[in-house]
């Protein structure tokens, strides 16, 4: 009888059911709470060109024929019955709890964090691109963070608002130097952080024990910090680069912006004239990091006719789960991403930037 009641409700709603919040069904027909009130739908977002978001002054620009696309995930916190039905049939639509998507932050807090992450990501993209092209853009001087892993090695020992400037009597200049130090220790070893208070500038030390990295593919010690930010001082350069990300937040467009900058600042076709979708974080030293929503982004990239989708190495399976014709390539570094573009016919030989030619 309950099934008849549910069908009856949907029938009474007619075609209008597609826009009805799915949670309402559970309220109208007890026992049929299709999704919780806190449900969030993750859906394919967009795959948009990046070159028109980059502004470069006082340097010669080489407009590309191909396109590098950065990808997004659409997040809907008003799950309709139509979306619930689609989530059952389509792997590209996934229902999650609000806490799984946003954590304990409010929507406003999460948006602010995402915008900060995007700002840091754009800075890292510029640094990585210029570094690859032989130009020192910044001097890095510490690693900050916007979160600490719950129950991790430093949970309760360090706080957001502090900057890691040293580890075990070695100077931490940026994420690459920190990663290198972590690779030299083992879980269970004793460690000492040198921390700087960003407001007061005061230094303190904090002892801790290195943990095991949750990623089974990573060796060395684990600290347990999240949403990493790099403090850096801009070098004096005779040109200016700006990236307009609009209202889009998060760090996952870092690799796409890096490749776009290299494409714009060098002769030849980096993509071989193709449309290439990209997702992945980037560090100033060119390390590619994991991102979420890759299954949804892959579907968006395929819909836009991309010839290839470059993703973090650990996210290849996610991307393949929602696509059938798209060439998926997993990478862990900027070098590997450029090699992937070379396989499409991209020009990656002797990439360099002559700063003396700045206007």
Task: Please describe the structure with a list of short key phrases separated by commas or semicolons.
16 strands, alpha+beta, disordered N terminus, 10 helices, 26% strand, Ribosomal Protein S5, domain 2, 359 residues
Explain what the structure shows.
The model is unreliable at 1-18 and 22-34 (pLDDT under 50). The protein has helices at residues 2-13, 23-28, 81-89, 98-102, 107-132, 175-182, 254-265, 294-303, 316-320, 334-343; strands spanning 39-49, 54-57, 67-76, 94-97, 138-148, 162-167, 170-171, 190-197, 203-209, 225-234, 240-243, 275-278, 281-282, 288-289, 308-312, 327-331. It has 359 residues and is an alpha+beta fold. It contains ten helices and 16 strands. Helix 5 packs parallel to helix 7.
**Assigned CATH class of the largest domain:** Alpha Beta
The termini sit apart by 77 Å
The number of helices is 10
Low-confidence stretches: 1-18, 22-34
What's the oligomerization state? single chain
Percent strand: 25-35%
Present the secondary structure layout.
Layout: H1 2-13, H2 23-28, E1 39-49, E2 54-57, E3 67-76, H3 81-89, E4 94-97, H4 98-102, H5 107-132, E5 138-148, E6 162-167, E7 170-171, H6 175-182, E8 190-197, E9 203-209, E10 225-234, E11 240-243, H7 254-265, E12 275-278, E13 281-282, E14 288-289, H8 294-303, E15 308-312, H9 316-320, E16 327-331, H10 334-343
Helix pairs in contact: 5-7
Summarize the model shown.
With 359 residues, the chain is α+β, with helices and mostly antiparallel strands. Helix content is 29%, strand content 26%. It has a six-stranded mixed sheet. A four-stranded antiparallel sheet has the order 7-6-8-9, with helices on one face.
């Amino acid at each position: 009888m309950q099934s008849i009641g549910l069908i009856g409700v949907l029938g009474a709603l007619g075609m209008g059911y597609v826009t009805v919040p799915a949670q309402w069904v559970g309220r109208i027909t007890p026992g049929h709470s299709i999704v919780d009130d806190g449900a969030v739908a993750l859906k394919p977002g967009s795959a948009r060109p990046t070159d028109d978001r980059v502004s470069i002054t006082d340097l010669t620009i080489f407009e590309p024929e191909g396109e590098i696309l950065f990808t997004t995930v659409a997040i809907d916190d008003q799950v309709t019955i139509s979306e619930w039905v689609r989530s059952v049939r389509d792997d590209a639509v996934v229902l999650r709890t609000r806490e799984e998507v946003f954590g304990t932050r409010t929507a406003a807090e999460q948006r602010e964090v995402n915008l900060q992450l995007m700002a840091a990501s754009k800075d890292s993209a510029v640094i990585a691109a210029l570094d690859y092209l032989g130009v020192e853009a910044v001097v890095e001087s510490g690693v900050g963070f916007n979160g600490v892993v719950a129950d991790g090695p430093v949970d309760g020992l360090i706080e957001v608002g502090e900057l890691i400037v040293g580890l075990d009597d070695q100077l931490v200049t940026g994420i690459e130097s920190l990663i290198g130090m972590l690779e030299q220790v083992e879980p269970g070893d004793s460690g000492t952080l040198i921390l700087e208070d960003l407001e007061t500038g005061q230094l303190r030390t904090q002892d801790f024990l290195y943990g095991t990295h949750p990623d089974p593919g990573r060796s060395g010690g684990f600290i347990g910090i999240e949403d990493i930010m790099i403090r850096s001082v801009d070098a004096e350069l005779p040109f200016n680069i700006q990236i307009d990300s609009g209202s889009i937040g998060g760090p996952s467009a870092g690799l796409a912006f890096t490749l776009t900058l290299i494409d714009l600042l060098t002769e030849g076709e980096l993509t071989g004239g193709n449309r290439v979708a990209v997702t992945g974080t980037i560090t100033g030293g060119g390390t590619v990091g994991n991102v979420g929503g890759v299954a949804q982004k892959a579907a968006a990239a395929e819909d836009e006719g991309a010839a290839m989708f470059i993703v973090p190495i650990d996210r290849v399976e996610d991307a393949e789960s929602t696509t059938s014709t798209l060439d998926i390539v997993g990478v862990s570094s900027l070098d590997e991403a450029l090699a992937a573009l070379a396989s499409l016919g991209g020009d990656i030989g002797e990439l360099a930037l002559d700063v003396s030619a700045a206007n």
